[in-house]
Write a structure and sequence with these properties.
Elements lengths: L7 E6 L2 E6 L6 H5 L3 H6 L4 E5 L3 E10 L2 E11 L2 H6 L6 H15 L6 E9 L2 E10 L5 E2 H9 L5 H23 L2 E3 L7 E6 L2 E6 L5 E3 L5 H12 L8 H15 L5 H30 L10 H4 L9 E7 L6 H7 L5 E6 L6 H5 L6 E3 L5 H11 L4 E4 L4 E3 L1 H12 L7 E4 L1 E5 L2 E2 L10 E6 L3 E6 L2 E6 L3 E3 L4 E3 L5 H21 L6 H18 L7 H25 L16
Helix pairs in contact: 6-8, 7-9, 15-17, 16-17
Length: 568
Amino acid sequence: MARRLSDFELRNSGETRIWLRRRLAGQSFAGAVADPERLLQGSDCRIVKSEPKIKVGRVALEIDGVPTGVYIKQHNASPLYRLASLVRLSRALKALKGAAVLEGAGVAAATPLAAVERRRWAMLTKSFFFSEEVAGGARSDLYWREQLKPLTGPAAFKRRRQFLTALAGLLRRLHAAGVYHGDLKATNIVVQPSGAAERFYLLDLEGVRACWYLSRRRRIKNFVQLNRTLGRLLSASEKLHVLRSYLDGVARDGRVRSWARRILSMSEKAERRSALKNRRSVAREGAGERDRPPTAESRSASTKDRPQISAMIVCFNEEEMIEPCLESVRWCDKIVVVDAFSNDRTVEICRRYTDRVIQRQWKGYRDQKVFAHAQTTKEWVLVVDSDERVSPELREEIERALARDRGRYAGYAMPRLVFYLGRWWWRGGWYPDYRLRLFRRERASWAGEEPHDKVVVDGEVRRLRAPIYHFSYRNMDDHMQRINRFTTIAAQQLYDKGAPWRWIDALGRPAVRFFRSYVLERGFLEGFAGFYVAVTAAMYVFLKYAKLWELKSGGEQKGDSGEGGPPA
């Protein structure tokens, strides 16, 4: 292992260990990788993937004096993996090892830059892998669909066959060197045009391993992974061309039919397992009808197949957060922004993305959104707060759902995933927190009480799976300020409705809220951060009723005046 990491130097800092490429030791990059959570939380980070165990984001960092795209892959360790990490490598270090294995096999990979481990009591909690972006590269399925498939004529046929032959050569070199990739799907193969040909780079390096004997089953499994992804876009003759090109190099008997039957059989079994898992997930969540796993037809559904969408955003002094928000809804047909006379660069940034920027005096959360709703013109409206971002997975799911909606649903609710204190909050009661954010314009109205507005639709609502990202609080100070502001508004609402003040509300409700967040919603698994979130959740409830007591007792209390903009 030491030989494989000879190009990296190890730095220890308390519970953090960093393997940094030696040539980057004296550069600003070295300081940036010491805090990967901050990089992933930054407004300039584009989130590519977010799941409970894995998070991937892209940032621009300076390398050798040049701004360079860098991908950060965060792995969260489960309780069992934490115990196993006492004797096993972290996934970030496995990725470094995988890159070295591929280099030895003559197969290109995204250049590894650093690996970071967070450990507590010698057990792994998180690991981060930094790799350099492949300049001009594209996922193999997107490259085929957007660059090669549209070509026409005899030259185009030859060009596509050349690409497929090169892809088969990649597999042949990989397997001839005894190297197995555990997840060789289309998204993990990046294509970089190089003159009249292409170069291939592999991703997901923690799944790469060198085998003293690479079995036929494992080689076929790599073909199955490709068949279920890139294969959806290929014709039967194109798939056979890849297989023939591969077998001519590694199998003397060239048993193409035997391999093809095995690949199809294993692919069908994998599809059945995936469909069964999907049905069990739907039954567990009890959310009604969901999308089936995407088929080739659903994946190819384009924006022209769906109704048009207006993205609706209200904001005030959000120059740090508004651009990533706007970038995440750029695919919508129209963006409508209602600004409460910001005194920073918010309006200037918004006008780069849309000509529909309206300034209006702030009169409350619900009133502002009612006005913004009236300014939209498309059939569907997507509401996004300025501190939120539509994930790439959510965009795809929205477009698939609307393309085959056929007038059945009046709206779609989506889970909201919060990023705070350097982590994604799948626990602690903040997820899934479904919000109705996509609805038919003519069948929706606004309700709720300040500051918690909500949409009400006339018709059936369906839940989506992919999350909308919520960067709710910049830090603890911002969190405390918002708790103070929102509890003031909430207490005023209770007072205006004539709600009574009772000891049981002031003492019992906060205790129940803490227990639910910390125990029932498993916040304790997040360590001190989970305890802090549970305490602040209880404090929100306590302050709301404490301020109601102040109002009832005749103490001076001022609610949100509604003038100017919402406090930033």
